[in-house]
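Protocol step 4 of 6.
Sequence for Ubiquitin-like domain-containing protein (Toxocara canis) entered exactly as in the expression construct, tag removed. Do not edit the line below.
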Amino acid sequence: MQLVVGIAAGSMQMELLDRNGKYVTSLTDDLATLESLGVCDGMRIHVKDVSGEIASLLDHSVEKYKISDEEYEQRSESVRVWKKLHGFDKQPDQATMHDVENSKMIAEGIKVLYFTCMDKYGGFVRPQDVKVGDFPPFICDREMEEI
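Step 5 output, structure tokens:
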């Protein structure tokens, strides 16, 4: 999680929020799985930095370096140029096909056909986030209660 949010594990306070942003529970057990927590589609994990280090980044007494998009675009050695040279400016890393419908069209706006699948059953993820295997369908207990 530290690589995703940039906060050291010891400085994180994590909360599970439902699809409406309402607090469900605090995430304090490092061994708990998403299934044991009853996580369903649309829920999110909210991470707070409790270290106080973020305040140091907001120090307005130090003048910050600023550059316009136009000036940055003209630079020959930048992350933006590197991404364009290597084809990462418009395409995600990996295409996947899901067993269940994905409610959000992740690939909307992409004009290149990378793979085919049923509508709303595909997406793009980073290769290191892919687990290959034969997984049984996941049924959320909370969704079953609603039925």
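Step 6, annotate. The chain is about 20% helix and 15% strand.
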